[in-house]
Records
---
Amino acid sequence: MSTSITPRPLPDVIASVVADAAAGRLTLGTTGAIHEGVRCTANVRQHELVVDEPAGLGGTDTGPNPVELVLAALGTCQAITYRIWAALMDIKLDDVRFETEGDLDIAGLLGLREGVRPGFGAIRHRVVLIGPETEERYRELMAAVDEHCPVLDIVANPTPVERTLEVRAA
């Protein structure tokens, strides 16, 4: 038996944040661990993600790798933000599709060459909007989405990261 969840209507979300700014501030998190080889699990709310590398990179290919998850996060966050901002701007939007890819040189991860980034050297993100509006109207929507998309902001701008290490005896 599957449980159906009714999403909270966007106007209700907006009204609650307008009424109380604290209602819009969230701290999100995940926990996880590495298992055999390089396969990891990550727990996000009630969801478990399996993260692994393809066999060619030493994994067992039981899930996407971390950098693929970044690409998926960017694409899906953009799609969600398009849906939200289309509603906010009263723009009819039937569908949003995306293709996101990035260039990675694993020599950076492995420390094999000086000056090679361990992360993406470039990301290309293509969005296809389907609906009855003019191209100009959809370009206005794109500008609003690009200004407000959380994951685009994370990958396009430096974000402070506080790291700590705890060492325990085996």
Note: The mean pLDDT is 94.
---
Amino acid sequence: MKFKTQKAPPVGFQLAPMIDIIFLLLAFFIVTYQLTDNEKVMEISLPAATEGKAKQRENLEKIINIHADGRIVIDQQVISLDQLQQKMGLLVRVNKNQPIRIRGDEETAYKHIVNVINRCSKAGIWNISFATGTPRPVTTPDP
């Protein structure tokens, strides 16, 4: 008796699962991308430090900008010291080691920076670093 052998249909490339994976990867990268440049206010002139090293931004690091007049800016919003303490308290609830970077203008009075540090400490923040700029080259006038 002669049997007919059936050939399997050719396997095609499944496009729908590939598109699903690409969209999942795209969503993942959009969600995890940190918008660091938004937090760097351009009107702040950082003090220069010759011995400082460029430090990579830590994961989930919050940047606090302090203007020369004492204004505090986080996420492009001007906030008060009480709001700062409240916001830092919420961050500490989520992450006990919440990193904070303070960007103070070189003209900022020291008391404004100390006030921010005190409020962060009261909220439970201990991981604080300070941003500095690179020294500007000294130019000598031509004779």
Note: The mean pLDDT is 81.
